[in-house]
Sequence to fold (1290 residues):
Amino acid sequence: MQIVSGHILHNLAKKLWPFNRSITGNGVRQTLAIIKKHLPDLECIEIPSNTKVFDWTIPQEWIVREAYIISPSGKKICDFHKNNLHLIGYSESKKIKLKLSDLQNYLHSLPEQPSAIPYITSYYEKRWGFCISQEQRDILEDGIYEVFIDTDFYDGYLTYGEVFIRGSSDKEILLSTYICHPSMANNELSGISVTTFIVKWLKGLKNRRYSYRIVFLPETIGSIAFIHKNIDHLKAKIIAGYVVTCVGDDRNYSFLPTRIGNTISDTIGMHVVKNLCSNYKIFKWNDRGSDERQYCSPGVDLPIASLMRTKYAEYPEYHTSLDDLLSVVTPKGLMGGYKMIKLAIEAIEKNCYPITKIKCEPFLSKHGLYPTLSTKFTKKNIALISNLITWSDGTKSLIEIADNCGVPVWILYSLLNKLKKLNILNIHYK
Amino acid sequence: MQIVSGHILHNLAKKLWPFNRSITGNGVRQTLAIIKKHLPDLECIEIPSNTKVFDWTIPQEWIVREAYIISPSGKKICDFHKNNLHLIGYSESKKIKLKLSDLQNYLHSLPEQPSAIPYITSYYEKRWGFCISQEQRDILEDGIYEVFIDTDFYDGYLTYGEVFIRGSSDKEILLSTYICHPSMANNELSGISVTTFIVKWLKGLKNRRYSYRIVFLPETIGSIAFIHKNIDHLKAKIIAGYVVTCVGDDRNYSFLPTRIGNTISDTIGMHVVKNLCSNYKIFKWNDRGSDERQYCSPGVDLPIASLMRTKYAEYPEYHTSLDDLLSVVTPKGLMGGYKMIKLAIEAIEKNCYPITKIKCEPFLSKHGLYPTLSTKFTKKNIALISNLITWSDGTKSLIEIADNCGVPVWILYSLLNKLKKLNILNIHYK
Amino acid sequence: MQIVSGHILHNLAKKLWPFNRSITGNGVRQTLAIIKKHLPDLECIEIPSNTKVFDWTIPQEWIVREAYIISPSGKKICDFHKNNLHLIGYSESKKIKLKLSDLQNYLHSLPEQPSAIPYITSYYEKRWGFCISQEQRDILEDGIYEVFIDTDFYDGYLTYGEVFIRGSSDKEILLSTYICHPSMANNELSGISVTTFIVKWLKGLKNRRYSYRIVFLPETIGSIAFIHKNIDHLKAKIIAGYVVTCVGDDRNYSFLPTRIGNTISDTIGMHVVKNLCSNYKIFKWNDRGSDERQYCSPGVDLPIASLMRTKYAEYPEYHTSLDDLLSVVTPKGLMGGYKMIKLAIEAIEKNCYPITKIKCEPFLSKHGLYPTLSTKFTKKNIALISNLITWSDGTKSLIEIADNCGVPVWILYSLLNKLKKLNILNIHYK
Fold:
């Protein structure tokens, strides 16, 4: 049985930090290679460039050899090898000299976050440009700058990783996280790290009611390619699942529903987030922004919601160099994310329909469940056991019962087992 | 294509002002004659006095030749020809001399609105009496007053006007407004004026999905007579509609639902009013007070709601001489009423079920719908288009989609057309 | 026709005060004997000790001959014959001398309510002990105390009383109150007294739509025994009903729903409580604590809610000697409880589906229901009659119509009769 700690999760994120991930290319493959060390049966799927996937086309691979600017005084700035956020994602090659005033047209910074390098991409239109902190931009000297961008595009593959874990049922739970973001921590090294260790935990379980399909893929084009390749299978088998994203900071717990809004993924995801802390946040489908957009799109209609700590676009460091492994993503934050996903999966696994076997209330004292001296104050002590039994009428799922009882569902697991052993109730599955 | 302005609407109301409208009689016919100048195919229906219409009987016609009081000092006061509100509606003839103290029993005024002449009728019990401002009543001199009321009742007709406009479908939208109020502006010259120009606009439309039936009738007894004459047809054909009343002041927008409460008239009426301004008011069925009482009555059950600016009985000038064409009903107020009715009808006409043709999100850039440079701030720009597409799953009407997107439905019309032309989605009708 | 007053109700409670009620024994039989004087056809059912009833076993009878403590200075304290709360219910015999410090282990008091003797029982584990006020406990002298408890357990019966009143239909309304509490007033002499007089009223009614089954039984084990004996009959016949408990103080009106939550007992119980006063309290199923726990348990599923004044466990005197017939339960409080139960039963009896016979609104003046002079202010006067008619479409029960009209249902009874006589509407039953 693995012992997971925040530091273990954090260390994996640190190991993945340097690679230049994008929607294609070696950064993606390097990332999958590290994951594969943890998950040896991770399968890497490669979809050739130019393949049509629904309304989209798999783009060429992008490779960056080097990218930087030489200032008039000869200093190398915006060096891609120092921070891969400096180069706009999918920039084309460029070797050019230009005045500062002309260079400014190709620089991107965030005046309101002067120390941050923004994260910008231009996947589908040929462009070039650099991202730079406002602080650095403000002190650029006048004169002639030399731009060196040595990149390449070529027909290759879009690569994603997939793990399948068989359970008693061939019905599947899907977990999806994305691997296309360069060096940023919450969005999205946190998702990769947490998901990797969730898979290790799942594989270590002795009994699994459901099968599990876990994908590590580039956002949007990756999930579209995955759905395109597997749509009939997915529609037939997937009964629940989550996009795992932004699960590493220790601020909030957040939930974003499926488009339909009332699937088992919704009921359970909402329950988990609401019961983990008091300052959780429940978003609406209109607030969506990751791969649930594809999974839940009309005609695909998979029951995939999103579980997050602080949601993308909702924290100040989002999509900048400030989204780091120091102040934003912490071991404690990652551990909270891991716990949230684990609780949600356990809740799906254990979600049964209990039914009381005894008419009228059971004689709890006989079963050792009731204090024998009735005073003014004892009645409340057995409220939970009594509530669990009273709601166990065979029509309510354990998660509904937990909501009716006003407790986290995980409080009920051992109690349920006890009542089953005492022959007070039975459980069945739908 | 007609150009409608607030002044055109206001001018029609001014032209209709002087006639002594009541539930029967020449004032009604004079009013319909003016409307017919705008709507040449207006048909006037006459129901003979004493006809049984459900629980009611068509009353005799009432004619007023003159009505006034001569004061002790010989002044003519409460002269019907100066203001038709002075005489209680359906007053019987009277020629009598009496002391001020006795006359007081036949005078009606509003102490809390001292400058207002109240509007009072006694359709179904023979009575006589005068309405007078409290200010004038307070200075009446002692002495003997001479009352002259020269009216007549005779077997004639209840008259109402009806226009039918054929559309592609034989399903009908009903608009109903009333013509029985004497010289008062919001309640009810505004309804007549706005409805008249809505009909002109409807007739000018090239394509109409639905047919339209529009009635100008005396309140209550008129709608009862109309329903009585046409109940089988109405129940078979009417799919939506509105009572158009109090649509001329520029204060509020108001909605009163059908009795059933969830018809298409309700969904759309509510949507229009909520999206027209922020200080709208949604009433309940228990607040009803006009012809929806008949259209929605049990056994009739037509889906007719009410669209209003400031609702009858909700503004201080209501049912008094203060409800005028100067300070209460304005060109701007009437234009707002016209716009509201037009938006509601358009929303019914255009209410379709869009369905996305592409699995997963469309590649918006390819269709020219997406900025190619992805920054932290661009995602929100395409939210509306993305939301329109995501909710277009074939199960939601355009009005529901607009509510889901949090925008007025009329914002979506051109966008929907664009997406249809781009072959991204299809629409169908139920 | 009986005249019930608060004093009559209070007097019955006073007469029942002294008996040492418990879940079995003579106190129960003495109580039933008094009730039988009011209700001669009360049938007493006796279930032998050791009978299995679902998960429970009927206990032996318990008899108390005497119980007290002699203090070191020779004073008799905690005398059962002075207050039957002094002895823990179902205490075993004991004759023992012990030091104060040892005696303390067998004493029970309430430090926060120093003048109160608590009510404690130990039905299902052999124990002994005394309940004493904190004030008395605090001044106990050091030294040796002599404990005398002379009780006995023997195979006998659990006894409960049952009345059946036949109505037009064999569908039954169940009322259940409990008779196992010793000398305490709100919980539970109030329930016995109010229920007794409700039965007298029911028997005096000329027409009863439903049959009535009323039980006076020991809480929990009594209702379980009753259900066990009659479950098939009860499930086939009971269509509504209430646990009558804590109906004697004049503070609140309270409602606790059935487990299912939307039965006719719920709709009507809630309506009655909400319309009786403004400071009512609606509880949730999780707050339950009396015999509804058995009636509504999964597999039994009877539609039994609870109607109360101030609910058990919600008032400070609950389960102590302070719950008395002086300051807690008053004639006014009992009369309010009686009225509440009566209103609920009447509402069930009279709950019909009215349907308007006239299309469009009736001509109210013709039927003498409308003032003939229409002014600005008369419209509101006829709102109620108009609302009653408009909601009478045959699909809504009278209780729903009352809620729609925003009035107590009992306001509608005479109005409904009037409209029926005028042939304006019809009623039918479902």
